[in-house]
Amino acid sequence: MTIQEVKQEIPAATKPIVKVLRKTDSTKIIVLGFNQGVTLKEHETNVPAKLVVIEGQVQYREGDKSVILKQYDELEIPVNILHSVEGIQQSICLLIHG
């Protein structure tokens, strides 16, 4: 029910919604929910990661690079590189670490 819970919280969200869907010794899957205009501030990851858009549309920014990701688009996030994600529409993404 984690994804449904995130979806229900999005309309009132003023910051990204972050919930762990699954965690093992080698992998972590996180559900991210974005209301329109809400940004996951600039940060780095220290493990290989992939962002997958399940619903909606987000903008991924990395330095001068900006990419619009739509439903079912996916993007490899490089290790130790500053990046941010903003909801262009109400959106649900999976972030896969490992």
From TrEMBL:
InterPro entries: RmlC-like_jellyroll, RmlC_Cupin_sf. This is Cupin domain-containing protein.
